[in-house]
Amino acid sequence: MELxxxxxxxxxxxxxxxxxxxxxxxxxxxxxxxxxEAISLAAGRPSEDFFDVDDxxxxxxxxxxxxxAERGADAALVRRTxxxxxxxxxxxxxxxxxxxxxxxGIDVDPESIVVTVGCQEAMFLVLRALRTDExxxxxxxxxxxxxxxxxxxxxxxxxxxxxENEDGVDLDHLVEQIxxxxxxxQRPRAFYLVPDFANPSGASLDLEAxxxxxxxxxxxxxxxxxxxxxxxxxxxxxxxxxTLKALDTSRRVIYxxxxxxxxxPGARVGFAVADQRVAGADGGSTLFADELxxxxxxxxVNTSPLAQAIAGGKLLEHDCSLLKANTREIQLxxxxxxxxxxxxxxxxxxxENHQVSWNTPGGGFxxxxxxxxxxxxxxxxxxxxxxGVLWTPMSHFYDGRGxxxxxxxxxxxxxxxxxxxxxxxxxxxIADLSDKEVSTQ
Length: 441
Known about the structure:
Blueprint: H1 20-34, E1 39-40, H2 55-69, H3 75-83, H4 93-104, E2 113-117, H5 118-130, E3 136-142, H6 146-154, E4 159-163, H7 171-183, E5 187-193, H8 207-219, E6 223-227, H9 244-247, E7 253-258, E8 269-273, E9 277-279, E10 285-287, H10 288-297, H11 305-317, H12 322-325, H13 327-347, E11 357-358, E12 366-370, H14 377-386, E13 389-390, E14 392-393, E15 406-410, H15 416-439
Parallel strand pairs: 1-13, 3-4, 3-5, 5-6, 6-7
Antiparallel strand pairs: 2-8, 7-8, 9-10, 11-12, 12-15, 14-15
Helix pairs in contact: 1-6, 2-11, 5-6, 5-10, 13-15
């Protein structure tokens, strides 16, 4: 086809736009929209059971009262704070610092916090700052969150995968990959992971693994990018472990936070804790957070003050404890994970069916099922059309091959009745495609 003068071709656009990672989310959203009656065990969004529009003006008022009472703001300054462009690093940094101290035992200077447009922007800012030339790479757990892969593509930063295992991360393989990066003449700048109930696998690192990871980072002069959207959602009979940032004594960890799951995604509020010192040519130093804010000022200028104010009001209403604010959500997700695991046990008794297996996360939103057929996009669309059930192919979470016989289930956005019906439908799909797999052999 002959192109018109104003048309473009893919070879004249950024190479990332041809990468499957950037198409994954759009494809999965499209499938869900095409089959609106299907029960979704795919969506990783938080439950809507406790959303209440009436909460929003109250949160806004609580934040305005805080500005007046604790910050000494008069009516004009309150109005300006809400309506005008805001401070690039954010206006709820002090409240987030209180939250981290309260819920995570992390004590940081509020000035080391950059409030971002979701955690996705925080990832982009950090990778953009760390990528100095083509030698810089970022290591990441595989399977891993597709958003990190997309951000790395956009800043032209190669990904080096580190295997996941039953303990969360294969730390011996991490060391091997660090050495391999150096042997290839490249620089390992950071290692990204979700240490608590990871997306997509639901895996977590135990305390010994966390301590060893920090030791590896120190030995190899590596930064750790700790993403923690699910850490509060420990099963009710479990015990929360300290975050990597809480264990960090040498500022190796850049902590990536999000209020999407613990507050509400519509606010699009995330943050980065970047308390590392950056040495300048003049002999002085700045906070890494200040360097990130320079990039942010040219990207999104600032995070919506209105969104921050509403999120800040929710923090204030619960004494800056998101653990306290999410009591009902923690119970719901814990119940749903239990229902999922019990439901899988009933439908696929372990002593009778060795072809279907699954892991048993201790919290969070996700679990992974291994099946005897190719669980790809074609199988997803077939299951949505014929059986009315949605799930996520695990192959979307690998940079290259991997996860072909696995699917991710999410427990966060379904009722108990939907869970039961969804698992019934999934069981029928698995039986159907397993039979087809046998017949072709």
